[in-house]
Amino acid sequence: MELQNSIAALWQEYGQNAADILRKIILVLAIIIAGKIILRILKRVTGKSMAQKLKADETIISLLRAVIHYGVIIVCLIMILDVFGVSTTSLLALLGAAGVAVAFALRDTLGNIAAGIVIIFLRPFCKGDFIECDTVLGTVQEMGLFSTDLETADGIYVSVPNSNLWGLPLKNYSRNNQRRVDVTVCITYSDSIDTAFQVLREVIKTEPLFLKEPAPQVMVQALGESGIDVTLRAWVPSSEYWNIYRAQMKNVTEKIQAAGLTIALPQRHIHLIKDVTPDAMQQALPPAAKDFKEA
Fold this sequence. Notes:
This protein is α+β, with helices and mostly antiparallel strands. It is built from nine helices and eight strands. The strands form two sheets. Strands 4-3-2-1-5 form a five-stranded antiparallel β-sheet. Strands 6-8-7 form a three-stranded antiparallel β-sheet, covered by helices on one side. About 15% of the residues are buried.
């Protein structure tokens, strides 16, 4: 009887508080569950609408999902604090005041977020594009709020801050549907340029992936120290660029050699003169050197 009276007294004193705490815990659990459901629905609906209606690529979709994810979490935290009686109005004011200091301390991080938003609208690259920015060269794997993930040609993971991708000149090798391939071979000065041109024109006829427009060209690129640079210039589909380039470098070299032409090698001619008198050396100097010596 005494035990029952003690339990009744405790319940009368703390029962209301316990019930209130239990109610708050249930509300918190409900907020968390509802937040997860809403987050899942928003991500699914956003992904489908962006991909089907707006034709957005996976890079923009993944970034938008990240924004939705953090936004739902913040809203749920504010609701949970409100359940426990924390004044969200004063809290938001406090966060606003602290936000200025945090923004100054994290200005580089916020710059990455701002750069990511700008990239979303201007879309200089998409997922799967092969890009180059400063010293980084690789294929875009995923773009986040703070950084973009790339994979180099040799399979190395690289994480690049978004501000670097937006603040520096960027090359997108996958953006255009066609690229120009230049295959240059250096022949000796004693070889026939016309023969080299004929060989390159035959190569153009036998390569079906060379585009008709713009038309392929054969030209003398430069007169070098060791030989004449002869270039085959043609436009090809971007997806086939490296396959055609490697194949034609081998093909052109073999065809040039089969035509009896010689691939020029770097060389220097050194003339040794013995027993040269000062007067003979003075006469051998060019006029500009003579004037400089007299001055």
